[in-house]
Write a structure and sequence with these properties.
Blueprint lengths: L18 H5 L1 H11 L2 E3 L4 E3 L2 H8 L5 E2 L24 H10 L4 H4 L3 H18 L1 E3 H17 L4 H17 L4 H24 L8 H6 L2 E2 L2 E2 L2 H32 L1 H9 L4 H11 L6 E5 L3 E3 L2 E3 L4 E4 L1 H4 L17 H4 L15 H18 E6 L4 E2 L7 E3 L1 E6 L10
Helix pairs in contact: 6-7, 6-16, 7-8, 7-11, 8-9, 8-11, 9-11, 11-16, 13-16
C-alpha cells in the first residue's frame, strides 16, 4: 500500500440493497474480484480479494477501528474493548481475555452443549418440520453462550429476549436499536455486579477475568467490563447462529454431503471448516483510513471507510483451488480462511464457535435420516451472510442410531 493522489470515485460499483445482490451475493463478489477488486459501495469501499483484505487487517496504523467497524460508520453507545480500539492497547486487552477462550477451557462444555442440542431438536423432530433459525439455532446459541459465560439460569431467558430484540431491530429502527442495546447493557451490568460479589475462577470465567484485569497498570471499571460483555452477547450469538444456519442450508441443498457425514461422522470437523470458508458469515467488518493510501490501484482518502469482505476473500481462487467447491481434502489451507477475521481483531471465540457448530451438526445428522428444504429460505442483508429463515423438513431416524459423544 502506498500514498497516492487522484480524483475520488463518485459512482458505486455495487449496491448491497439491490435484490440481485441479496439473492446471490457470491455472484457479485466473483464479478468484483475479477473486474473491480476495490469496489465503491454507497459511501464506502469494499475489498473483495483475499490479499487486500489481509493487508488492511494487519495494518492498524493506516486503518483504524476506533470509529467503529460498521461500513457506514458510528458506534451504538460508548466504544467497547477490544473491538473499537487498536494495538497496542487492544493487544494488552486481548491477552487478558484469551484464557477463558482457550480450547482446553472450552472442551469441558461439550457434554452440556450436546444435551442442549438434543433438547432443542426433540420437539422439532416430533413435528417433522421446523423453521430452524428461530426454533433451533437462535435459542441454541443463546443457551451455548449463557453456559460459556456462566449466566445464572434465571437470567438466561432475559438474555435471549434482549439479544433477539437487538438483532431484530439493528437494521430497521435506530431508536429501537439504541434502546435494545441499552437493555443488553443493563443485563451485562447485572452479571458484572454478581461477579463482583461472587467471583469465579478467572481461567474459566470471562467476566471474572476482566474484573481482575488491568491495562497500563489501571484496573478496568465495572462499566468497561459491562461494555465488553455486551459486545460478547452480540458477537457470541449472531455469527454462530448464522453460521450454523448456513451449514444446515448448504447440507440441505447437497444431500450427498449429508450422506457422507452420516457414514463418516469423524469428518464433521473438516466439514465445519470448509462450510465456514464457503459461507463465511461476516461479510463486511470495516476500518477507517488514517491517511491517503492506494490499494490495488485505487485511491482511498483519509477518513474513508473500507469494508473487509471476508465472505468474498474466502472464495478467492488465488488462495483456494476450486473456491466454489466443497472439498474434504482442503485441510492444509483450512486455517487460512477468514471466517473469524484476521489480524489483531481476529475473533477470540473461534474455539467456542467451532465447538458449537460441530455439536449442532453432529446431533442434527445423528437424529435424522435426511433433512431438506421445506420452502425457500430468506437471507440476511448486508453486512452478514446467511439465512434469517430456514424451513426444513426433518426425517427422523428410527431404531438404534449413532449418538455422538456417547
Amino acid at each position: 500500500m502506498t500514498s497516492t493522489t487522484g480524483t475520488p470515485r463518485t459512482h458505486i460499483d455495487f449496491d448491497p440493497e439491490d435484490p440481485e445482490f441479496q439473492h446471490d451475493p457470491h455472484a457479485t463478489w466473483a464479478r468484483l474480484r475479477a473486474e473491480c477488486p476495490v469496489a465503491h459501495g454507497p459511501g464506502w469501499w469494499a475489498l473483495t480479494r483475499y490479499a487486500d483484505i489481509v493487508g488492511v487487517a494487519t495494518d492498524d496504523r493506516t486503518f483504524t477501528s476506533t470509529f467503529g467497524v460498521n461500513a457506514r460508520g458510528g458506534i451504538i453507545g460508548p466504544p467497547r474493548m477490544p473491538m473499537h480500539f487498536d494495538p497496542p492497547q487492544q493487544t494488552q486487552f486481548r491477552r487478558l481475555m484469551n484464557e477463558p477462550f482457550l480450547a482446553e477451557r472450552i472442551l469441558p462444555l461439550e457434554p452440556a452443549f450436546r444435551v442442549m442440542a438434543r433438547e432443542q431438536l426433540q420437539p422439532l423432530l416430533a413435528a417433522h418440520e421446523a423453521e430452524m433459525i428461530t426454533e433451533f439455532t437462535s435459542p441454541l446459541t443463546t443457551r451455548y453462550l449463557a453456559a460459556f459465560l456462566r449466566v445464572p439460569q434465571p437470567m438466561v431467558a432475559e438474555l435471549g429476549r434482549q439479544i433477539d430484540n437487538f438483532e431484530n431491530n439493528v437494521t430497521h429502527d435506530p431508536h429501537a436499536t439504541e434502546a435494545a442495546s441499552e437493555a443488553m447493557y443493563e443485563h451485562a451490568r447485572k452479571l458484572v455486579a454478581l461477579r463482583q460479589q461472587e467471583p469465579l475462577d478467572p481461567r474459566d470465567d470471562l467476566v471474572s477475568a476482566l474484573l481482575q484485569a488491568s491495562i497500563d497498570g489501571r484496573a478496568m471499571d465495572a462499566e468497561a467490563v459491562a461494555g465488553t460483555l455486551r459486545l460478547v452477547y452480540i458477537a457470541g450469538h449472531i455469527a454462530p447462529k448464522i453460521a450454523i444456519g448456513s451449514c444446515m442450508l448448504y447440507l440441505a441443498q447437497h444431500p450427498e454431503i449429508q450422506s457422507q457425514l452420516r457414514e463418516h461422522p469423524d469428518l464433521v470437523p473438516h466439514a465445519v471448516e470448509e462450510l465456514l470458508r464457503l459461507e463465511t458469515p461476516n461479510a463486511g467488518f470495516a476500518r477507517q483510513a488514517t491517511r491517503d493510501v492506494e490499494i490495488n490501484g485505487q485511491r482511498i482518502r483519509k477518513g474513508e471507510r473500507v469494508a473487509l469482505v471476508f465472505t468474498s476473500g474466502d472464495r478467492d481462487a488465488a488462495v483456494f483451488e476450486d473456491p466454489h467447491e466443497f472439498r474434504f481434502d482442503r485441510d492444509r489451507v483450512a486455517s487460512r480462511h477468514l471466517a473469524f477475521g484476521h489480524g489483531a481483531h481476529k475473533c477470540p471465540g473461534a474455539n467456542l464457535s467451532r465447538l458449537e457448530m460441530q455439536i449442532a451438526l453432529e446431533e442434527l445428522l445423528a437424529a435424522t435420516s435426511q433433512f431438506q428444504l421445506a420452502a425457500e429460505p430468506e437471507l440476511q442483508g448486508w453486512a452478514l451472510h446467511g439465512p434469517t429463515r430456514l424451513p426444513l423438513a426433518l426425517d427422523g431416524r428410527h431404531g438404534n442410531s449413532r449418538q455422538p459423544g456417547l
